Amino acid sequence: MHNPRPHSDNKSFAFPFQCIALKIVGAWPLENCDSPNFIGILYYAWSYTIIILITLTCLAQSSFVFYAWGDILTVTECGCTVLMGIHNLLRLIHLNRRRGALKDLTTEFVNNIWISQESNEFVAQKCEKDTVLLKVISAMLFVLICMYVILPLFELIHVTDSGSKPFPYKMIFPYDAYSTFPYVVTYFLTSLAGFGVVTTLFAEDSLFGFFVAYTCGQFAILHEKINGIVDRVDTKSTKTDLHMTLCAREMTRKLRLKLIIDHHNTITKFCEHMEEFFSPILLVNFTISSFLICLVGFQIAAVKMTLGNLAKLLIYIVSALSQLFILCWKGDRLIECGSLTSWKFYSCEWERLHDWQYPQSLNNNKHRHRKTTLNCPSGTSFIRDIAFSVQRSQKPLCITAYKFSILSLKSFTAILSTSLSYFTLLQSLVEKNE
């Protein structure tokens, strides 16, 4: 499998452990995506088997939804798992079709974005802390699917009628799925599909959050470099020595600015590639999350249920809200870091460089032993480059949901507002039927 390593400090580098789920379901890119060997072909076959399994499970759940279409409470209950299945089915299809793009993106991240402890310990530790919350949400989602799979087994103990055996989700099958052997096989396969759905969800989101966290870390390093563009010179004896020192500093400053611009272009290019890869999935996520949050909230508020089912739905809605909030928060952080760059360029004191004059200590013999500090003078080209950098960094740097919406906290509040509207509509429909 594809496993890019950084050139330095590669022992401490690792993708988020959640990415193991992408490897298990066959969504991780191989080292040679275009012409895989026999093992690679089997790996691709396994990935399509998971996709087919999730598709069949979603069809079985959808059949039950259409069968109970007149009952709003039942439809909303089953609609949650159907929408979650469709959401992550589309994610898996996208990952399988864009293996090459994911391979290029991970390689670019390792080579240009990842920050080792050796290069900048403070920023690297901060980036690692930013991924802790994603691990917590991943654990919550894993507990959720375990509850969906395990709780029906406890109900099975009290079932006397073979025709009412519980499954992880409510489904209708075109065959007798309640006989002993078909029931065991069907239960196992639908549970496997559920694990594939949930693990894909938190694995891809964790990878996205991992990328954004270290991209923001690169912006922090970039801002430190910008703050150090303009240095100061200690004047000593003669104008000639001072002039030579200033010319050397001028050349150093221009080289420093060129490296900063190259660094900024590298970060910008990675953000563009990240936007290109993740934006289709974010659109699906935004669209389906509005319905999911509405349906789960409606179930908790309007339906009487057992304590186990209530616990499942509470974990469900907390996980869904947290997952969506983390994505929007990460997008907001990226916008904030990108916008701060233009201010850093503007506030680096470049506007005072061309106002330099020789200090009085060089024109007055009385004070020739005085040590004076002054800003290095700057040429027109340097000022023009700074002004261009200010203008270039003002361009919004953001991740979008396929250009329909920007990933930010404003988008999060908009989704919650939409979910509340749907919730109000469902509640009015139920009250009308009663």
From TrEMBL:
GO terms for cellular component: plasma membrane. It holds the Pfam family 7tm_6. The keyword Transmembrane helix applies. The chain crosses the membrane at residues 12-30, 42-66, 136-160, 180-203, 277-301, 313-329. This is Odorant receptor. One of its GO terms (biological process) is signal transduction. It is found in: Cell membrane; Membrane. Keywords: Membrane, Olfaction, Receptor, Sensory transduction, Transducer, Transmembrane, Transmembrane helix. Belongs to the insect chemoreceptor superfamily. Heteromeric odorant receptor channel (TC 1.A.69) family. It comes from Bradysia odoriphaga. InterPro entries: 7tm6_olfct_rcpt (IPR004117). It is a multi-pass membrane protein. GO terms for molecular function: odorant binding; olfactory receptor activity. Coiled coil: none annotated.
